[in-house]
Design brief:
2 copies of one chain form a homodimer. Helices cover 31% and strands 23% of the residues of chain A. The N terminus and C terminus of chain A are likely disordered. The first copy, chain A, has 2 domains: 135 residues, FAD/NAD(P)-binding domain (3-Layer(bba) Sandwich), CATH 3.50.50; 223 residues, FAD/NAD(P)-binding domain, CATH 3.50.50. Chain A is built from 11 helices and 27 strands. In chain A, α1 runs parallel beside α8, α4 packs antiparallel against α5 and α4 packs across α11. With 456 residues, chain A is of the alpha/beta class. In chain A, strands 5-2-1-9-21-20 form a 6-stranded mixed β-sheet, with helices on one face. A 4-stranded parallel β-sheet of chain A has the order 13-12-11-17. At the A-B interface, β5, β8, α4, α10 and α11 of A face β5, β8, α4, α10 and α11 of B.
Chain lengths: 456, 456
C-alpha cells in the first residue's frame, strides 16, 4: 500500500468525484457512510471521538457492568474496507450552508453533499447549574463520571462518622422515568443489594435507597399503560422507590428539592431529557422546542436539497407523532439520507422518509424488562431475554458481542460486576467532593482513632 | 448482617485485639493481608485506589491490548471474606514511627504493627522536566495516557500536512531496555505493522519507526547474555530499532537528544528506572540510592521491630545482589512479614527473610519472549507460552483470567486490539498537543481544501 503525501485532499486514495461529508459517527452517520460504500463519490466522516459508541448500553458502563471498550468500536476499524472513505478526528464548530463548508476548530472542509448526524445532549430545561450536581449519560466521560460517583459514595459511607451523613451517601436519586432512568435505577439497586452486599464492614449496602423521580403520571411514558405499570412493579421488586408526579424544583450538592419536600442525597443522576446539540443553531434554520432541526419530508434542509439532517438531531413528524430519538430510527434515517444522496448523484429526485416502528424494549434489571412489538406485549424474563438477544445482535463487531455475552453471563450467575474501577485521576475528584463535605460542618474525615487511642 | 454505627474503629466487626495496618494493596500488601486472615488481630488495609493492579500486564493496557478492568480487581472484593479486615480508601502522607501513627491527607490512624508496601514510582534521575514529555508506566492513569498518546499520534499523522511532520508523529521512542521497555517496544511495533495496517488513507502505519534506547551494552541486563541477545534478535524481527550504549541527554516535546544526535519524535515513553515512593522519606531512616528503605534481615525497620517494609519499596541485599522489584519477590516478602507479625503476636522471635528466585520471564511480542528458570533457558514461542500461562494463572479472580485469555486468543488470531479507545476528555489533551504543533510553524491544521475548492 503506497503512502499518500502532499496537501490534504479528503478521501484521498479514492476515485475522484463529488465529496460527501458526514458529521458524526453514531448510529445514523455510520449507517449513511456504509450505504455510500460503493458510490462513486468521496466520503469523509468527521467525529470528535475515534470510536462509535453503542449508546443503548452506556448505562451498563455507568453502573460498572461493562467496560467502555465492550460497547465501542474504532470508527476507522469499522470503515477500513471502504476505500472511498476517509475518517478524520475533528471538532465541528459550525456549518456554513451558503458556501457549503464545515467549519472545524482547526480548519474547514468543503462539501457537495452534507449528512449532519451530530446527535443530542442533556437538556436541563434552563437549569444549567444543575448539571454539576446531577450528571447525565450521553458519553463515555459521563458514564465513567457516574460510575465513579456511585462507587465513591459507598467508599465515603464506609468512612462516614455519623448515621445522617452515611444515609446521605447511601441515597441515590435518578431524575427522569424514561428508559435511561429506569435502567439506571434498576442497576443501582442491584449493585447495592447484590454486588456490594458483603464488601463493607460498617454498614450493609442493602441499606442504600434508590429513588426514581418522574414528573409525569407514569414511568416509560412512551409505552402503553400496561407496560408502564409492569415496569413500576418490577422496579419496586428490585427495591427502587418509584415516585411519579413529582416536580424537581432544585438540585444542589446535598440533595434534591421537590417543592416543600427535601431528599438528602450525595448522588443525583439526570435522565430527564435531551436536546439537539448546539451546532444546530449555526445553521440559521428553524429548530423545534428540543433544539432539533426541522427537515423536509426527504430529510433535507429547507432550501438546501444537498444537506440532510438525521438521527437525534432531526425533528420529523409522522402522523401526529415525532419520530423518537432511538437507534433504529437513526439507522433508518441514515439509510434513507444516503439513498437520497445517491439519487441526486444519479440525477433522480429524492424520496420521502417513512419511519417503520419495529417495537420498543426497555430493560430494568436482572430478568426484568418490558417489550412492545406490534400488538405484542412482553414483560419480565421473556422481555429481558428478547432485549438481551437484540442488543447483543446489534453490537458492532463479533469480539464485542462475545465479550459482552460473557460478561453478562458471569454477572447473571454471580451478581458480580467486573468494571468496578475507580481510576487514579478520579480519586482527585472524590477528594473535591470529600472536601465539600468537610466544609459543611459534618466531619467527613472519619479515619480517626486506633486500637491504642480510640477515644470513644 | 447488622449495620455498624458510631465512631470510627478500624476493623470494626472483627474480634478485638491488636491493630495491624497495611499501607498499599499491591502484590506484597495484599499477600500480607491474606496471610493475616486467621490472626486474632484486626487488620486495616489502606490504599489510595480501590483496586489491586496486576502491574506486569499494565503495558497491555498502554498498548490497547487489554482493558483496565481486565487487570484489576476491587480490593474489597478480594478481601470480602476476611471478617477481621477493613479496607479504606485513603491517601497516606507520612508515617510517624515514634507515636505509631499513619498520617492521612484527611486524618490519621494508629497501629500496633505496620506493614509498609507503598511501592515505587518512575525515576527520571533528577530530570523531572522530562516527565511531561516521556510518561512512565506505573498506574492506570499512566497506561491510559500512553495509549492515548500512541493512538492520537496515528490520528495526527493522518492529518499532518507534510512528510517531515508525519514522520515525527510516526516515530516512537522507548527509553530503557528492561522488561517494561522491551514489552512496550514490541507491542508498539505490532500495533503499527498489524493492528492499524489498513486503517489509514494517507500513510501506511508500517512506515512507523519504533526505537528502543538502552544506556547499557545490552537489553534485559538482569538476564543472561544469551537471553539478551535473543531478545534483541526477536525485537529486530518485529521491526524495532534496538540501540544499546546510547545516553539520553535531553527530551522535549519534539524528540530526544543523544549527545550530538537528535531523534525527532512526538511520542517518547520512559521505562528507564524506578525509585521508592517519596513517603519513604518521612520515616527519617536511611534509604538506598533508589530511594528504597534499608531493612533488617527480618524485613523490619532498624530500631522498630513492629514496622516492616516490603516489595518495591524495600532494599534487601542477598549475597551480593539486591532482591529485584518484581511481583514474586513482593509476594514472598508479604508472606514473610505477615508471618513475622504473627510470631511477635505469639511472643516468638522473628525470622530472617530468604528470597527464592523462581526464574525470570520477559515477553517481547506475539510468540516472542525469553525465559530463565534455574539453568533452563527458553526463547521464542515456548517462552511466550510459558509467560502466557504463568501470567494468566496469577491474575487474580477467575473472571479476569477467562476474559484475558479470550482477549489474547482473539488478538493472536486476528492481530486486532480491542481497547483502542480515545475517550472524550483526553481529546482535549490532544488538542493541547496539537496546538503545540501549530505554534511551531508547521501547519498542523491540515483539514483544508475540498472537492470544490482544493487549491493545490
Amino acid at each position: 500500500m503506497p503512502a499518500h503525501h502532499g496537501p490534504f485532499r479528503p478521501g484521498d486514495g479514492a476515485p475522484a468525484g463529488r465529496h460527501i461529508v458526514i458529521v458524526g459517527a453514531g448510529f445514523g452517520g455510520l449507517r449513511a457512510a456504509q450505504q455510500l460504500k460503493s458510490s462513486p463519490a468521496r466520503v469523509t466522516v468527521l467525529d470528535r471521538r475515534n470510536h462509535h459508541l453503542f449508546q443503548p448500553l452506556l448505562y451498563q458502563v455507568a453502573t460498572a457492568g461493562l467496560n467502555p471498550s465492550d460497547i465501542a468500536a474504532p470508527i476507522r476499524g469499522i470503515l477500513r474496507r471502504q476505500r472511498n472513505t476517509t475518517v478524520l478526528l475533528a471538532e465541528v464548530t459550525a456549518i456554513d450552508l451558503a458556501t457549503r463548508r464545515v467549519l472545524l476548530s482547526d480548519g474547514d472542509i468543503g462539501y457537495d453533499f452534507l449528512i449532519l448526524a451530530a446527535g443530542a445532549t442533556d437538556d436541563y430545561f434552563g437549569h444549567e447549574a444543575w448539571a454539576q450536581h446531577a450528571p447525565g449519560l450521553k458519553s463515555f466521560d459521563d458514564a465513567v463520571e457516574i460510575r465513579t460517583r456511585v462507587l465513591l459514595a459507598f467508599e465515603a459511607a464506609e468512612r462516614a462518622s455519623d448515621d445522617v451523613e452515611r444515609a446521605r451517601w447511601l441515597t441515590f436519586v435518578v431524575i427522569g422515568g424514561g428508559p435511561t432512568g429506569v435502567e439506571l435505577a434498576g442497576a443501582l439497586s442491584e449493585i447495592a443489594r447484590h454486588t456490594l452486599a458483603r464488601d463493607f464492614r460498617r454498614f450493609d449496602p442493602r441499606e442504600a435507597r434508590v429513588v426514581l423521580l418522574e414528573r409525569g403520571p407514569r414511568v416509560l411514558a412512551a409505552y402503553g399503560e400496561a407496560s408502564s405499570a409492569s415496569a413500576a412493579r418490577q422496579l419496586e421488586r428490585l427495591g427502587v422507590d418509584v415516585r411519579t408526579g413529582t416536580m424537581v424544583t432544585d438540585i444542589d450538592a446535598h440533595g434534591v428539592t421537590l417543592g416543600s419536600e427535601r431528599i438528602a442525597a450525595r448522588t443525583v443522576l439526570w435522565a430527564a431529557g435531551v436536546r439537539g446539540v448546539s451546532l444546530a443553531r449555526t445553521l440559521g434554520l428553524p429548530l423545534d422546542r428540543a433544539g432539533r432541526v426541522v427537515v423536509e419530508r426527504d430529510l433535507s434542509l429547507p432550501g438546501h436539497p444537498e444537506a440532510f439532517v438525521i438521527g437525534d438531531l432531526c425533528a420529523f413528524e409522522q402522523g401526529s407523532k415525532s419520530v423518537p430519538g432511538v437507534a433504529p430510527a437513526a439507522m433508518q434515517m441514515g439509510d434513507h439520507a444516503a439513498a437520497n444522496v445517491l439519487r441526486l448523484l444519479g440525477g433522480r429526485p429524492t424520496e420521502a422518509f417513512v419511519y417503520r416502528d419495529k417495537g420498543s424494549l426497555a430493560t430494568i434489571g436482572r430478568a426484568a424488562a418490558v417489550a412492545e412489538i406490534g400488538w405484542f406485549r412482553l414483560s419480565g424474563l421473556l422481555a429481558w431475554l428478547a432485549w438481551l438477544g437484540i442488543h447483543i445482535f446489534f453490537l458492532i463487531g463479533f469480539r464485542n458481542r462475545a465479550l459482552v455475552l460473557f460478561e453478562w453471563s458471569w454477572a447473571y450467575l454471580t451478581y458480580q460486576r467486573g468494571a468496578r474501577l475507580i481510576t487514579e485521576s478520579i480519586y482527585d475528584s472524590w477528594r473535591t467532593l470529600w472536601g465539600a463535605v468537610a466544609t459543611t460542618g459534618t466531619p467527613a474525615s472519619a479515619a480517626q482513632g486506633s486500637a491504642a487511642a480510640s477515644a470513644d
